[in-house]
Write a structure and sequence with these properties.
heterodimer, A: Ferritin, 67% helix, 0% strand, DUF4439 (chain B), Ferritin-like_SF (chain B), DUF4439 domain-containing protein (chain B), Ferritin-like (chain B)
């Protein structure tokens, strides 16, 4: 390593040109910067919202199975499939983002389960159709394995609707 | 349909998917002779129409990419001999699984948005129908988590 000799000292002293108005302008910018920074962060992974929905659907299906024995087998099939969607999506998100990828850790409010089995089944079908639509919109935006993953999740949700029907 | 750009892998995948649609159309013709239940017969007719549509769209797509689409084989071998409604449903399930895998591969290997959307539609139709046949056959799980992969 080479160093200029003599080392310059005091080069960080305020420039005499920095008048009061200049200082005010600088401090105004400083106040803005955190907001600016947070806007310019990387685009969120489009798979994150799919994985979140898979998580809430798993919970909804699990509680539906607990509450309505007559729906239990079908709702458990939905819970199993949606749990696998969530796991596989999270694995892919982590693979791309590295270890520092974060997932919302707070648990979502417990979903309300309809009193009647018909109502509960309808709620499950609505959630699955919504998940199918969301993944179908996402798949063509992606490519390769990720496009296939979102597409397969979408087709999987469409098939699960048949199971609950 | 305007010209479509296909990569080598994309073209191979569409040719393969078209092959599965040809097989599906053939198997639906075969199954018709063995289905006795009226409701199943109606579903079968609807499925046959959908597969002919998907076959035609895959053919058009290859043509618009300047590729000669492969033609259907004169006959196909089903995994098990088809002798009654149950074995016919199993053959139908097998072709829907093949179509799912074929279209998933197209989705993974193509760039044009229009092609990806077609692949997703065909994958979803095939997966949904496979689940209906599994429910009729009592095959569990009736809806695999990842159609086209498992």
């Amino acid at each position: 390593m080479t160093v200029d000799f003599p080392l310059r000292i005091g080069s960080t002293a305020p420039s005499p040109n920095l008048n009061r108005r200049g200082l005010l302008r600088l401090s105004a910018l400083a106040a803005l910067s955190p907001a600016v920074l947070s806007c310019s962060g990387p685009e969120p992974d489009p798979l994150v919202k799919l994985s979140e929905r898979a998580r809430t659907d798993t919970e909804l299906a699990r509680l539906t199975a607990e509450r309505h024995p007559e729906l239990a087998a079908r709702a458990r099939a939905v819970a199993d499939a949606r749990a696998r969607h969530g796991e596989t999506l999270r694995r892919e998100i982590t693979r791309v983002a590295g270890e520092d990828s974060t997932f919302p850790s707070g648990s979502a409010p417990e979903p309300e389960i309809a009193e009647t089995p018909e109502g509960a089944a309808e709620r499950l079908r609505t959630a699955l159709r919504e998940a199918q639509r969301q993944a179908a919109e996402t798949a063509p935006e992606l490519s390769g394995y990720r496009a296939g993953l979102a597409g397969s999740v979408s087709a999987g949700c469409a098939s699960l609707v048949e199971v609950v029907a | 349909m305007s010209a479509v750009e296909l990569s080598e892998a994309g073209e191979r995948a569409v040719r393969q998917a078209l092959g599965t649609e040809h097989a599906a159309v053939w198997v639906h013709g075969l199954a018709k002779a063995f289905v006795t239940d009226q409701k199943v017969a109606a579903e079968l007719r609807e499925a046959a129409t959908t597969h002919r549509e998907h076959r035609d769209r895959a053919r058009e797509l290859l043509r618009s990419a300047g590729v000669a689409p492969p033609v259907a084989e004169p006959a196909y071998r089903t995994p098990k001999p088809v002798t009654d409604q149950d074995s016919a449903l199993r053959a139908l399930l097998a072709v829907e699984q093949d179509c799912s895998a074929g279209w998933l591969a197209v989705l993974e290997r193509s760039e044009p948005r229009r092609l990806k959307e077609l692949a997703l539609t065909c994958l979803t139709d095939a997966a949904t129908r496979a689940t209906r046949w599994r429910l009729k056959l009592g095959v569990r799980p009736s809806a695999p988590a990842f159609p086209g992969r498992e």
